[in-house]
Every structure is written in structure tokens, then in C-alpha cells.
């Protein structure tokens, strides 16, 4: 295992501007000569990575010295036929990776390997001076030996300040990761707190104690199911073909097209879901949101199917997205252990394992029920966060609204049928 982290430059520049740096991911439809150029650039970037790694290791083995980053930059200046910023970015990337591994080793995690693998292709990076925008085209210069790479800039990025561009190979396609400076968003007014309970049937359930919002997760779940089912079919068909055959190549290409398509659908839905949660919090002046951390729930062994479902729930991604979007409005997201929150009765405090979606207390004398389980869960998280424990007879939200994320979903293969 070795660790690699990209986009460091994009993050580093964040502090310097008023706005927020966002990374937009753009799949490229390249003509064959452009694709050849892209491959060529990535090959040269790989050469940089390989050289840095080889020199760094060699000096250690021969002389017992680890060359530092500044010396490496000085030494490799002007030696490659890519933009000088790309060379610098790769060196920075290498050192960050190396230092992180070193730290892990010092903490006893010696299973992480230092960078060691020689690469054939590597992500290329352009920073401000290598990037120009002309007539709606993005022009990425490649030094004097190679022509620039020209890409039509999508309308949504026009007029934005571009901080960094990376050429990435992902799922059988070239992509541009474009870091843009977006204007800062309106900051929240108010000091209220709320809790959010992430789930599968309901993607997110929020409450501030008075009101609750339940955002449906059905669309997300059906997309994930479609993804898994179709992927299985592809794998089966691919396994029946010969390595290197035309049939296999065609199937692989179709598989990647499908993955890209469904990936966009899922991410659109995740954006819609988190946007609803952010707007709700903004309108109620929520400054801090507590989130149930299902780590404990996920670690239990619940059988193969259940485990698969839980892992595909991709709670982590939705949480990261939510955290990021809230942060842009000055709202913080804080994790809290959620064990027992959806099963503990808000009235008598007795714990009952819940089978249905509607809460039912198992205590005969209490008999509380009729409120949605996830709403109980969210109020439980809020209760734990605010009071440090479950309080009995706590007040439940007076209004509960149910919403579905509104997403446009074109049919699979809608545009791409011809290519298949
Ligand atoms: Zn009860």
C-alpha cells in the first residue's frame, strides 16, 4: 500500500482568497490527436514522478541522505518537457506522500509503503501561469516543445477564476479536475442547534427540536441497486470473454460508460439531498448540526447482504458533502455516537429494538408510538448532544415534513447509444 493524495495545491491556496475553492470534474471527449497529446503529457509527468522517486531513494541507499524538497526542485528545474509548474506539483505531491508515510511509520503503522512503484502515466497539473482562457476555451500550455491542450470551457465555469487544472485518467477516460474560486456564500445568522440522522430509507432526517425534515433516500437507493445489478451483469459477461478480444474491449468500454453515467446520477442526487438539508438549516438559523455516527452500527456483523447494503449506503460521501456545504455557510457539523438513539423511547426512556419504520415503545405501561423512527433518532441525537444523555418525556417536533430530492434522470444510454 502506498498513500497518494492529489489536489493539495487547490487546498493550499484556499486561505488566500475570499471565496471558496471548489474542484469541478469534467470528463473529456477528445479527438484522437488530442488523446495522443494527453497521453504524452501524462507520460512525461510519470517520468517526473519516477525520477524524483529514484533520486530520492538512490541518495538514501548510497549516501544515507534524504534530499529535501527545495533541493529536488532546484535540481530538476528545466529538465522535462512539461510545464515547470507540473514538475513542481509532482515533487510536492511526492514529498507530501513520503512525509505522510514517514509519520505513519513513526506511529508504528509500518504496513504503509513508501512510494516505490514506477508509473507509466501520472496526473498532470497546471497552475495559474500555465492556464489561459481564450474565446471560451481553456488553454493549457506544455512548454515550448509541445502544443497546448485546448478544451472548451463549460458554461458553468465561465467568468470564474481558475486556480488549478489537473489532467486525470479515470474509468477509461481523461478528465479535467478544475479548481475554481467561487464567491463566498451567505453566512448563517443565528445560534440554533440541530441534529441529523443519516439513513438508508431516509437519506437524512433533521430536527431542531420544534420541526423535523425527512428527506427520502429511495431514489439514491434505487440508483445504487441499479448500479450493483448492472455491474454484476457486466462482470459475468466479461468473465466469459477472452482476454484481449474485441468482445471484451467492447464490454469494458460499455461498463465504464455505464459507471460514469450512474456516477453522475448518484452524485446529482447526493447534491440535491444535501442542498435541502443545508437550506433547511440556514432558514432556521442553525449554527451547529450534530450528526449520528453509524460507525458502531456498521461494524457489527449483520450478515452478508445487510453488510453489503450498509457499505453501499456510502454514508461517508454524503456526510462529507453535507459537511462541506454547511461549512460554506458557516455551519459546523459535529459527530456524535448514535448507538441507541432510534430505539430509546423519548417518553419512558426504555430501549426497544425497532422492526418497523414507525416507532413503537415495547413498554406496556408507556405504549408510546406513532412517530417516525428516524425522527425519534434525530431527536435522540439532539438530546444526547445538548443534554449529554437521554431525557425522559422529552418534547417531540410538532411538525414533520417529508420531501424527495428533485432530480432529472435521463434514461440510461440516452445520448450514448450510438457509441455502444
Ligand atoms: Zn416508552
From TrEMBL:
Q: Any idea where the Probable transposase IS891/IS1136/IS1341 domain is?
A: 178-297
Question: Can the keyword Transport be found in this entry's annotation?
Answer: no
Any one Pfam family here would be: OrfB_IS605
| One GO molecular-function entry | DNA binding
Q: Does the keyword DNA-binding apply?
A: yes
Transmembrane annotation, as ranges: none
What is a biological process (GO) this protein takes part in? transposition
Instruction: List the keywords (alphabetical).
Output: DNA recombination, DNA-binding, Transposition
Q: Which top-level group of life is the source organism from?
A: Bacteria
Q: Which residues form the Cas12f1-like TNB domain?
A: 315-381
Instruction: Tell me its family.
Output: In the C-terminal section; belongs to the transposase 35 family.
Question: Which protein are we looking at?
Answer: Putative transposase
Organism (species): Neomoorella thermoacetica
Q: What is the lineage of its organism?
A: Bacteria, Bacillati, Bacillota, Clostridia, Neomoorellales
